[in-house]
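Just curious. Invent one:
>
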Amino acid sequence: MHAALAGRAADPDPAAAVPGSDAFEAEPVTDDDLRSWRAQASAEARTSLAMLRNTSLLHESAQTAAAAVLGAEAKLLRLIEERAASGAGMIKCRTHGDYHLAQVLLQRDDFILIDFEGEPARPLAERRRKTSPLRDVAGMLRSFSYARHHAEVTCRRESADCAAYAPLLADWERETRAAFLEGYADAAGRSGLQAPLRELQTVLDLFEIEKAFYELRYELDNRPDWAVIPLDALRRFADAS
């Protein structure tokens, strides 16, 4: 997907494009891009933490994780500043913008990707702006956490022995993340899209942290009992640092 979106051939009307203003062609990431991404992620974090601190809607299942995240505020903000130190070998291009499992349809022996309009809550100009394809990768990684949570909720609703399944679901998420990243790294490497993924892990962390903070605001607004999902992710990032 990203190899297609990063090519000049992806422009819907390349003949009409002004030279040097291609709407899709990949460009190298600059220091200004990195500063902008750090600032955006920091703003997302501060807004979400302020909302978490002042909310009266927090579900009891999320209270422990919320206290841990609020206690790690300084550490999380420092992580954001540290996780995009270099853009060497990175490109920016048009991206899906809202990439997760629900946007991927299985059709016989192939996959169909849908809904390329990006996150509806963001301005159109922002959704069209070239950015790192690792934002989409981070979105899919976060989607695996949501799939695991849905399975846990379903288990609690339908079975009295869910504790036995918790380690299996944790293994599933860990192995699915690893398999997805391995497949993506292989495809990106064969297409020459950007530097090897292992060299860009810190930037991927930045986007995953940013996505988790975005999810936190969404869940507090719409599904407070689901806020534990992004909170758990943020707590793991803080604990691992």
Summary: The longest strand covers residues 104-107.
